[in-house]
């Protein structure tokens, strides 16, 4: 697996207003996630990062919602996302709205989220899609110093690989908002060309047992038994 950790720090925006067309991105995410909030149940929802705190979760069935981060105006807990001040398996759901796009070590952040999530807990991730107009702009050296091109962009396949290592089951994934400067992102383009949408969303659940079972083959089991019986007979 290609390492994702980088040494230089990334300064995350404290609001969607800090991003060009940020309000359009936020509204698109609100619309995309709206059908999922009523499906989440439990006691605690954690939003990691200031951008996560701005996402509308009023329709979520989880009443206790806490925003955690290091910078921002609407934070409830000021803490390092790499060291969340919560006990193991104490959280029912976690929202990472573009949090991975502005972290130097996404693997470490996902492991920390996995630590605090209960079994069958929910994880919602949104990022920028590199296979989009934003991804093309990121190839320009001049634009790389500006937002949102200075953020880190991951393909969905890469995110799915990370989640599979942590034994998360993906319930839903989508891409949308093809045109950043339009509030609806071009409805016709989003319907027919979702693969090049600027925004990517993944909804997953933490599973206790492996998603793929690997039963022992009968031949291997018989061979192992023969070696065990043979060793026992020789010792006697």
Automatic annotation (TrEMBL):
GO molecular function: S-adenosylmethionine-dependent methyltransferase activity
Pfam families: Methyltransf_11
Domain (Methyltransferase type) ranges: 77-125
Gene Ontology biological-process annotations: methylation
Record bears the keyword Amino-acid biosynthesis: no
Top-level division of the source organism's lineage: Bacteria
The keyword Secreted belongs to this UniProt entry's keyword annotation: no
InterPro entries in the cross-refs: Methyltransf_11, SAM-dependent_MTases_sf
Keywords for the protein's UniProt record, in alphabetical order: Methyltransferase, Transferase
PANTHER family in alphabetical order: OS04G0481300 PROTEIN, OSJNBB0011N17.9 PROTEIN
Protein name per the record: Methyltransferase domain-containing protein
């Amino acid at each position: 697996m290609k390492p994702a950790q980088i040494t230089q720090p990334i300064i995350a925006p404290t609001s969607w207003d800090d991003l060009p067309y940020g309000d359009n991105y936020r509204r698109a995410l609100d619309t995309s996630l709206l059908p999922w909030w009523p499906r989440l149940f439990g006691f605690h929802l954690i939003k990691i990062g200031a951008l996560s705190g701005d996402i509308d979760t009023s329709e979520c069935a989880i009443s206790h919602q806490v925003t955690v981060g290091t910078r921002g105006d609407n934070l409830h807990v000021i803490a390092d996302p790499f060291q969340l001040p919560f006990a193991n398996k104490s959280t029912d759901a976690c929202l990472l709205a573009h949090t991975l796009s502005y972290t130097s070590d996404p693997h470490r952040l996902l492991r920390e989220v996995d630590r605090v999530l209960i079994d069958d807990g929910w994880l919602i991730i949104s990022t920028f899609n590199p296979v989009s107009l934003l991804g093309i702009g990121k190839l320009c050296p001049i634009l790389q110093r500006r937002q949102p091109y200075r953020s880190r962009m991951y393909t969905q396949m890469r995110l799915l690989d990370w989640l599979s290592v942590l034994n998360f089951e993906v319930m839903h994934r989508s891409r949308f908002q093809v045109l950043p400067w339009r509030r609806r992102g071009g409805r016709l383009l989003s319907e027919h060309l979702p693969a090049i949408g600027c925004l990517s969303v993944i909804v997953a659940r933490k599973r206790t047992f492996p998603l793929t079972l690997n039963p022992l083959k009968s031949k291997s089991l018989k061979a192992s038994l023969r070696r065990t019986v043979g060793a026992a007979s020789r010792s006697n």
